[in-house]
UniProtKB/TrEMBL annotation:
Keyword Transport belongs to the record: no
A Gene Ontology biological process term: iron-sulfur cluster assembly
GO cellular component: cytosol
Keyword flag DNA-binding: no
GO molecular function: 4 iron, 4 sulfur cluster binding; ATP binding; ATP-dependent FeS chaperone activity; metal ion binding
Superkingdom of origin organism: Eukaryota
Entries under InterPro entries matching the protein: Mrp-like_CS, Mrp/NBP35_ATP-bd, P-loop_NTPase, YlxH/NBP35
The entry's keywords: 4Fe-4S, ATP-binding, Iron, Iron-sulfur, Metal-binding, Nucleotide-binding
Protein name from the UniProt record: NUBP2 factor
Ranges annotated as spanning the membrane: none
Length: 161
């Protein structure tokens, strides 16, 4: 629908960060990439769809913040004094940041779709999407929801051996 397109309409490039296994540094890479792009003068958003281990809020020291609603959906958390990085994560929706998320497919997929359509990103040069490890339903949901916005590509994080 046209409303769905509106929230990502101002996003120029979408990058997915993926890996075949956990613990290889996807969230670290997503965070460092966002910080590097910001220092290059870009406006950056991070969408943390790692529902079981949302670590980016802690990496950016905003784990105690909350997201708010506005007319066009959720307002992401803005990071840093210059507020140049916009962040949306399930970590902001949990009662306690360390709560585990034990959800089955349909509910996870609905949340991912909501994250794609209902976050008021505004104008961004880059949206970095940090995904869970592996090749699960969440990846399919994320890519299908983002397909109309033609993601620029994916960064695959591997182990060095």
């Amino acid at each position: 629908s046209p409303a769905d397109r509106a929230n990502l309409a101002g996003v120029r490039h979408i990058l997915l960060v993926l890996s075949g296994k956990g613990g290889v540094g996807k969230s670290t890479l997503s965070t460092e990439l966002a910080l590097a792009l910001r220092s290059a003068g870009k406006r950056v958003g991070i969408l943390d769809v790692d529902l079981c281990g949302p670590s980016i809020p802690r990496m950016l020291r905003v784990q105690d913040r909350a997201v708010h609603q506005c007319d066009s959906g959720w307002v992401p958390v803005f990071v840093g004094q210059d507020k140049a990085i916009a962040l949306m994560s399930i970590g902001f929706l949990l009662e306690r940041p360390d709560d585990a998320v034990v959800w089955r497919g349909p509910k996870k997929n609905a949340l991912i779709k909501q994250f794609v359509t209902d976050v008021a990103w505004g104008d961004l040069d880059f949206l970095i999407v940090d995904t869970p490890p592996g090749t699960s339903d969440e990846h399919i949901s994320t890519v299908e929801a983002l397909r109309p916005f033609q993601p620029l590509g994916a960064i695959l994080v591997t182990t060095p051996q």
